[in-house]
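Residues and backbone
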Amino acid sequence: MVTGGAGFIGSAVIRHILESSNDHVLNIDKLTYAGNLTSLADYEDNEHYQFAQIDICDQEKLTHIFNDFQPDIVMHLAAESHVDRSIDGPADFIHTNIVGTYTLLEVARKHWLSLEQKAKKAFRFHHISTDEVFGDLANTNDLFTEETSYDPSSPYSASKASSDHLVRAWHRTYGLPVVITNCSNNYGPYHFPEKLIPLMIINALKGKTLPIYGKGDQIRDWLYVEDHAQALLTVAKKGKVGETYNIGGHNEKTNLEVVTTLCQYLDELIKNKPNNISSFSELISFVSDRPGHDLRYAIDAEKIKKQLNWQPQETFETGLKKTVLWYLNNKPWWQAILDGSYQTQRLGLETK
C-alpha cells in the first residue's frame, strides 16, 4: 500500500515496484492539486496495480481498504509538501501531515494486531519524511545524520517533524513495526511544476523570468527521484524495525548553481531561443527571500550504504540532463497541469 502514490515521489515508487518485482500495489491518494494519475497512465491496466481515491484522514474508508487489500507493507508518502504553500496556509499541512498520519497509524495498528503471527512479524509501516525536519546547517560543514536533533523552520517541516514523532511513538508504545526515512531534495520526471527545477525549465521554454530567492546561495543535496524510489523499496523490505535511514544524493548545489546548469543544458539542446536571447541565463532574476528560508541541507547517507548496500546511481549532472530531456519530450504532461485539464481525472474515480 502506497499512500500519496499519485504524487511525484509516490508515483516513482509505484513505477519502480511494478517494474522490478511481482508485488501487488494499492495506490491511495486523495488527488489534491499535486496528485496526477497520468504519471501512472502506463500501468492503469496492470493486474498488479489498483487505485483508490481516499483521504488518509478518513478512518472509515481506510479501515475498509485495509480489510480488503490486506497489505503487508505500508509506504506512507501522502503529505502536503510545498514550503511556500505552508507559509500561506498552514492548516492543510497540520491536518494532512499530522492528523492524517495519526489516522493511518491507528488503522495500520489495528490491522497489524489482527494478523496471524507470521504475517504480523513480516508487516512493516514505512514512513517517508524529509531532511527539512532537521532545520538549517548554516555556516557549518556538518551533515544531517540519523541522530541530528530536530529543528524545523517552516510550518511544512514542523508538520513533518510531528508526523515522524508520532510514528516513533506508535513503535515504542504499541510495538508497531516501523521504519523511517528522511530524504534530501528530489528531482526528476513527473515533478509538479511549482517546484524549483521543473518551474525553471518550463519558464525558460516560455521565455519567462527565472526567479531565484535571495542571492541563490541556499544549498541543497539533490537526489534523483528514481534513485530515491529504489532506496525506499530497499528500506521497506530490508530495513531494521525501529530504525531511521537518511537518503541523500551526495550532490550539494546552491540554487543558483542548479539554475545555471539547467540553462547550460537548455542552451545546448535548444537552438531557437525565445525573446531573441542568446542564453537562457539571461532570464535569471533575483527576488526577495522567503521567510525562515534555511540556508543549507546536507545528508550523511553512510548508514543506508553500509547496512543496506544502497547508494545513488545518478550524478547530479546525469540526472539533471535526463530531467531536462524528459520535460522537453513530455510537454503534454506538464501543459495539462498548467492549463488545469489534468484535474478532470479526479472525477468519478473508484477502486479498480
Notes: The first helix runs from residue 8 to 20. The first strand starts at residue 2 and ends at 3. Residues 2-192+222-252+294-315 form a domain with the Rossmann fold fold (CATH 3.40.50.720). The mean pLDDT is 94.
